[in-house]
Write a structure and sequence with these properties.
Blueprint: H1 10-21, E1 28-32, H2 39-51, H3 65-71, E2 78-81, H4 99-107, H5 114-121, H6 132-143, E3 152-157, H7 164-175, E4 181-187, H8 195-198, E5 202-205, H9 211-222, H10 226-236, H11 240-248, H12 253-268, H13 271-282, H14 285-307, H15 318-327, H16 336-351, H17 356-371
Parallel strand pairs: 1-4, 1-5, 2-3, 3-4
Helix pairs in contact: 1-2, 6-7, 9-10, 10-11, 12-13, 12-17, 13-17, 14-15, 14-16, 16-17
The protein binds zinc ion.
Length: 375
């Protein structure tokens, strides 16, 4: 990831490069931007720029030894940390067992959210954290001499996943930095960070991407036709991670059958059918229930895309399209966000081991109210 590959944020990039050129590099910086805004991409481009041995005013060179190591994200003075979970039977809670998966995920494009990270490592949101042990390990690593003799850079994704004791350990590192160390914290929700940390880091505000800019970037970097990208991005408000997620969701025939029957039962407040469907919902097990809920979210989003008037760009099979045309009028600005939140919460609950049937019955009752809300 070089600056030229970062979507948008040209002015921010210029500012970061100018700082690096003049040697004004704060040792702790917080890249704060919403999911899909490219805060991680920007942090990686900046780290690469700091390490590049033949950088120009415009960018890292792309061909020096350091840049070559960045191509596989394996520079010896580039350290990564991120939320992870404790592997079964392991005494240590360290990011080490997840480092390869992390590099692989980032190399697919640093525009992803927690959902994609969870899928990559097979965890669930509730378990993800950054441990005290991890913070101690980072203290140790950053205390070592740099291999290449230049900067030691840490990119820590989602510092908000640090618990208070972890954050306090990191605070020590921020207050008493080791020599030639730069810590880049990449946050989606900086307001969840300890105020003591927020006040000691230099903040880099990464704004939500403008839709045209994001669409052009999705076309260049992810091969999505600009018109389709723009359509997806309208629904996700410029969030590239969510737009790519939406594009990747497709359900089985069984998911579709269940979704159609479920929406009809919810609308009709038909509790007999809802109870029967709760069994169908729970039958495929936890992963199956999660997949179905993602499918339901996908259908919901597609209905909204359709409502924007771009029927030809809706990503649905013929059967789905026929249903969506009838269903879409019931989805509108007055209920779509609440419905989305409901399905996302159900996904989290299922991942967190809540009983599937209970979750299903609960959201069915709430969906009935939302579906009957006037647009
Ligand atoms: Zn270089």
């Amino acid at each position: 990831m070089r600056f030229e590959q970062v979507i948008g944020h040209q002015a921010l990039g210029e500012k970061l490069r100018a700082g690096a050129q003049s040697g004004r590099v704060a040792h702790a910086q917080l890249f704060n931007g919403p999911e899909g805004s490219g805060a991680l991409a920007l942090a990686i481009a900046y780290a690469r720029y700091l390490h590049c041995t033949s950088r120009t005013e415009a960018d890292a060179c792309g061909s020096c030894a350091s840049c070559k190591q960045y191509d596989t994200l394996q520079h010896p003075d580039l350290h990564w940390s991120f939320p992870f979970f404790r592997k079964d039977g392991s005494d240590h809670a360290l990011s080490q067992p997840f480092q390869a998966a992390w590099r692989e995920r980032v190399l697919q494009g640093p525009y992803f959210g927690q959902e994609e990270w969870l899928t990559a490592i097979g965890g669930d949101r509730k378990q993800l954290f950054i441990s005290v042990q991890e913070a101690m390990e980072l203290n140790r690593k950053l205390g070592l001499k740099a291999f290449a003799g230049g900067w030691k850079v840490l990119i820590l994704w989602l510092p908000e996943a640090m618990r208070v004791d972890t954050a306090n350990k990191m605070l020590k590192l921020i207050e008493e930095p080791t020599d030639r160390t730069v810590m880049l914290f990449v946050s989606e929700q900086a307001n969840q960070l300890l105020a003591t940390i927020r006040s000691r880091v230099q903040q880099v505000q990464v704004p939500r991407l403008d839709i045209d800019m994001a669409a052009a970037g999705m076309e260049t970097h992810f091969g999505v036709a600009a018109s389709e990208a723009a359509n997806l991005l309208h629904v996700t408000d410029g969030n590239i991670a969510a737009a790519l997620r939406m594009r990747g969701e497709a359900g089985s025939d069984e998911d579709h059958r269940l979704f159609v029957a479920w929406m009809r039962a919810c609308y009709a407040h038909d509790s007999v059918t809802t109870v029967a469907l709760a069994d169908d919902f729970a039958k495929p097990g936890r992963e199956g229930m999660k997949r179905f809920l993602r499918y339901a979210l996908h259908m919901l989003r597609q209905c909204i895309v359709g409502n924007y008037g771009a029927q030809t760009l809706v990503r649905l099979t013929e059967t789905e399209r026929q249903f969506a045309q009838k269903f879409a009028p019931f989805i509108h600005h007055g209920n779509v966000l609440d419905m989305q939140e409901l399905l996302e919460r159900a996904h989290r609950d299922i991942a967190g081991n809540v009983n599937g049937k209970l979750v299903f019955m609960d959201i069915s009752a709430r969906l009935n109210i939302l579906l009957r809300k006037a647009g």
